[in-house]
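FW: tagging you since you asked about this chain on Friday. Here's the raw sequence from the shared folder, copied in full. Didn't touch anything.
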Amino acid sequence: MKFLYVCTSSNTDFFLEQTFVSIVTLKLNTPNAFVSLLIDKATKKTLVNDRKKIKDIVDEITVIDLDESLSAQIRSRLLKTSMRHHIQDDFLFIDSDTIILSNLEEINQNPNDLAGVLDCHTLLHNNPQIQIHSHIKKMKNLCSDRAFLNNELYFNSGVLLVRDSNENHSFFKMWHELYKKHQKQNNIIQDQPTLALTNFKSGNVIKELDGTWNCQLNYGTHLFRSAKILHFFASVNIPMAMQNMYKKVRQLAFSQSAVSFIERYYETAAFDFGSTALVKGAEYKVLNTALYRFLIYTYSSHKKLYNFFEKIASLGRGHGFYYKTKKG
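HL: got it, structure written out here
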């Protein structure tokens, strides 16, 4: 079993540092892990000087030629949706924005051909990301089949067990083609909508992995004590302590000192969420609404307008609207 990472990176981002940190924690907790790294030619060109030391902690690197005019985000998804065709043998794919917390060797005993963890650890109708990413609209653009739109199985693509089987080669061929098609036609950049469509068209072949294999931050708090892989979601949820760790890796030039620093502090950094990270119930649901994002935008960019709203909502503290919201 290989452990596969996909990375598209340049000198202006921290994606390589993220990958470096995740691989170091994998090697620490799974000493015999065979690590495979899949990159594109644009990324390979940047693996010079300090950045080339990523080669010291991986066992193989596969380089694919992609159109360099495409964004790193799209190139990453093109590699991810086609990774079965570029890598030999069974593998466990792991997103770079992760920390490995325990030995992963037991994945070898998993009997499934293709498996993953449900997105946000829930069925689709309870998924708080639906509104954020206009999921339903995207799914209708992909396929109008009511059976597909009502399908509750929506998997997170951050950790995937992929056996080297003919069925999986066919699955990834379809996923890759559907991703390219809908990225161009419907501007769907995320890979998970087309993963869901591929799974539906293939007869729902993806089996469910225990949530500990892809503990998704904010949604998997109940799994923290047993999590094997902690998944941050690079665009929104990385704790400041982890961001500082990535900066430290760059400062320490991907050296052995950087490895030692990660090994010493990764657990502390991974769970350093700050005082407001763990929110439950109605407050958590509000955090995932467009109205909340509007308030954050107003607070950041139009402070006077935000203060005006705040004064209205705070009128007559202990009475009226303020009292009802506090009581509710």
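FW: Residues 166-186 form the longest helix (21 residues).
HL: agreed, and The chain has two domains: 2-270, 289-327.
FW: great, closing this out.
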